Amino acid sequence: MELRNAVIVDGVRSPFARAVRGKLVATRLDELGAKVIRHLLDRNPKVEDRMIEDVGLGNVLGNAEFVDLGRVAKMAGLPPEVSTFNSNRQCGSSMETLHRIAQSIMVGVIDCGIALGAERMARTIPGDEGPFTRVTEPTPVQFNKEQRDLPPDHYDNFSVPFPDFILDSPAKVSMLQTAQNVAEVYGLTRADLDNYAVPSHQKAVDAYAAGNFRDEIVPLEVEQPIFDDKGAWLPEERGEMISFDQDECIRPGTNFEALMNLNAIPGVESYGGNEIIITPGNSSPTNDGVSAILVMSEEKALALGLEPLARIVGFGVAGVKPQLMGLGPVPATNKAMKFAGLTMDQIDRVEFNEAFAAQIIPSAKELGIPMEKLNVNGGALAIGHPLGATGARLVLSLAHELRRSNGRYGVATQCIGAGMGITTVIESL
Length: 429
Hints:
Elements: E1 6-13, E2 17-18, H1 29-42, E3 54-58, H2 71-75, E4 83-87, H3 93-106, E5 112-120, H4 145-148, H5 154-157, H6 164-167, H7 175-185, H8 190-210, E6 220-223, E7 241-244, H9 256-260, E8 287-297, H10 298-303, E9 310-319, H11 329-340, E10 347-352, H12 357-367, H13 380-383, H14 387-405, E11 409-416, E12 420-428
Parallel strand pairs: 3-4, 3-5, 10-11
Antiparallel strand pairs: 1-8, 1-9, 2-8, 5-8, 6-7, 9-12, 11-12
Helix pairs in contact: 3-14, 7-12, 11-12
């Protein structure tokens, strides 16, 4: 069977807010998702609501606001017959929904769908909750020798061995711990990480000044949350409606000296006996936000007289040792590039999710990504990382940047909790 082309027609996202004390705390995720979908369709009037055949909802933390699968689509005004599905591939959830929608289009199952990602990372708005059940302690995961040792294709992806003190460390660890582990494997210093983090903020500041986010961020009318003097949200207090139009975590004036003065994040260990170098300054913040992408068969898009942003030409998902989660983009990108039939020297732009500076630096080196092509408008260290929304944001930002820079091919990639990576390769149109 000959595969059809799946194209990105358009996409939008909310500004990414701070978790806990940000501007989206008082807004339900389902309402926010519906607003973003509605904005997306309203600015593409040639795409009628009834043309949408499937909506994928990428979400990680399983918020009660996102339990009713059909609610978001209906609130956005879509016909009740539109099908929906949930996807939870941790940080890669909305990129996974994009892949599933695109693959359905490529094999001819549907012509048009929306990939949505949404996340609230700290606060829960009271809503419908399921029954409570007894929770038992999980059985500890203990790797056998085959699971513990390096796979036969290790050096196809990585230039260095993984040391025994990492391979013998606990497999179930926090994402912060995996960042420290990666830094130790590659001999990175605190200065290396902070030197990477500073330009992420400055590039984002410059991108705003240049209007580079104008086409992807939609201003949203939301309720201003009210907090007490200790920072606790007061849900019984109603704030005024405000326009929210800019990412909240970008810090103009961020400099190396300020980052180097930050304390390491508590709870992280060094299994190699080294300095703890993971800090809030070289880690992504916690955020709330929504992203959505409209995907269509190229045939359908052209028949409607649309001008798609990009064609999806490659997918890849791969696993790594869970202790080194941040390296997941390396094998995932290699897989996606093989599917696309491309090499890295053909890639003009890369959007690489900056979960941690510690994983970006070695992953980019392993993949041969020139720094001048990487996250040219800043990354998640500044923009933010609302887990389920990030993947769609990366692909959307990439598509716009390729068009803006007259580039042809681009790669969007991210690491995923539990030891995975996911990658999308696109061709600008």
